[in-house]
Fold this sequence. Notes:
Pfam families: SLFN-g3_helicase. Helices cover 32% and strands 19% of the residues. The protein is α/β, with parallel strands linked by helices. The strands form four sheets. The protein has a six-stranded parallel sheet. Strands 7-15-12-8-11 form a five-stranded parallel sheet.
Amino acid sequence: xxxxxxxxxxxxxxxxxxxxxxxxxLTETQKHLVDDxxxxxxxHIHDRQAVLILEGDAGTGKSLVLNTAxxxxxxxxxxxxxTLPLHGTSNTLLVNHPExxxxxxxxxxxxxxxxxxxYERPTSFINTLHKTAGQxxxxxxxxxxxxxxxxDPYNHFRQSNQLEEIxxxxxxxxxxxxxxxxxxxxxxxxxxxxxxxxxxxxxxxIHLTDQFRVQAHPDVMRWIRAxxxxxxxxxxxxxxxxxxxxxxAERMYQDIREYDHRCGLSRILATYDFPYTxxxxxxxxQTGSFHLRWDRNQPSHPLPWAERPDSIDEVxxxxxxxxxxxNYAGVILGPSVSYDKTTDRIILDPTFYEDSAAFIGRGSFxxxxxxxxxxxxxxxxxxxxxxxxxxxxxxxxxxxxxxxxTLWGNRT
Length: 412
């Protein structure tokens, strides 16, 4: 299906699927980016190696551009016209995120040029090609910052770096990379690490700057970035984007339920500060009068967590919403996010962070405590930037809750 065939999407429960579909309407800038990606692939398809990097904040449309370009490349690869530059090429889109794989495969079911098998997890792709001595022509990677940077035998990856292995198995690699979304030590990336790995490989970088998810004035994203960096700015000015501070998490949840009833895709999220064990039992987020179970692990469910009707009665984690759009997000800041009255700064305390798996494996970074706080700040940034229409915030820490309440009272 070519970009000339477009759909208009309403804000219903299927909107997050549609907004990553190759049929979704693109801006002129995005159309040019898709053309640039395809042109890069055509230019380098007969080279030994080449890499194109798409960089940009959460919500800048990286995944949509990536999937649209991938769809057009697959259309050319499967065309009967053997004179096309990418005819007959073997191409795959990888993403190391089980919920995103569901989303992509659900999209592929309705696009004639795509197959569900076109989308794979990196470990499956690497192990299959190593076993068959195969080679891919073009590999697209969404959320490349989630690729493993060390061995993970539990998940059947035994080499030292997933991107390094993918580079050995493909002529052309096109990847979305955002080091601010690194969430675990075993996949710990920064720009320096990436550049070292790509040294000697022809590489181009495209920066995406337009914000398509968070439909707000720039002061909202400035506030979010500053908060994740430990600074408290005056709250964003009143605007169409609904930015609110709550003293009661239960009240926030009831408002999220009302938003979900009105326009769908509205969910409660929390920092990973409440006990959660994958043992088949329900686990709960408890703060004040609020008591609600964490998201249930349902890997066999055909829908991603954010699109399941029952998930309105659950609290989502960074792992269930990374890469997804919501209309409204109610964010609970747990015990690891506190406030220092003396310095008027946000404190991230790893001792209260319940995601112990995030800190498994000591990397080459020198200061482990700083690296832990970096991972926590990244997770916070991810959940703060899920919503298109409104961000609602509640703080478990009493001092932080009081400081945010004061800022709310001083809001212009």
